[in-house]
Amino acid sequence: xxxxxxxxxxxxxxxxxxxxxxxxxxxxxxxxxxxxxxxxxxxxxxxxxxxxxxxxxxxxxxxxxxxxxxxxxxxxxxxxxxxxxxxxxxxxxxxxxxxxxxxxxxxxxxxxxxxxxxxxxxxxxxxxxxxxxxxxxxxxxxxxxxxxxxxxxxxxxxxxxxxxxxxxxxxxxxxxxxxxxxxxxxxxxxxxxxxxxxxxxxxxxxxxxxxxxxxxxxxxxxxxxxxxxxxxxxxxxxxxxxxxxxxxxxxxxxxxxx
Length: 258
Description:
Blueprint (H helix, E strand, L loop, with lengths): L2 H12 L4 H13 L5 H18 L2 H15 L2 H14 L4 H15 L4 H13 L3 H8 L7 H13 L3 H14 L4 H13 L3 H14 L6 H11 L3 H14 L4 H10 L5
């Protein structure tokens, strides 16, 4: 093995948590055609993701750039896109979008890239573009179904969104996010009873979801059942005593109780 690889091995041993050192080693092993290059590549990616979770953007960015140059795999483009989006500098989000869109252009069946392309477009307020990215794979998973419904809601197509949600729930009845979207669409269509049923199901499936109690309480308010809403709020505050949205909603409702 070359002296460069040996030096990089020593560097990784000295700094095992440094994603850039691991990426440099992975790149050198890849260039040398070493069988262990893939393992080093995977470890470097894991360290980049760990840095992102900790908010350590600079080391994650340097390592992701190197992996993208050295390996040029779709996964590397997606990882660099995630880092670019997290960095939030001038042009970073646009670069992230270009990266994922290029992956889709090269590999139309690349599901993670389509999901990220749609999410970036939706975040930029471009619901039409988001729909074009996600519609071809709308029924592939819970995530794609939910994202497709979100694009329909963003376009104001609540009727279409409701139809898609019902189809998705038949496939994935335990997916809390779909019941949550059903509740949101039902409120948009002024169907509070449907929203109550949907948000109650969210609370059953995933009581830890941040707005589970709040959404159900709001649905009861829309149905004219303020006492029921207060009951849900109080139950939520037992679980999350200092939840600000619940406390604000409770305060708003108290004077209206007769």
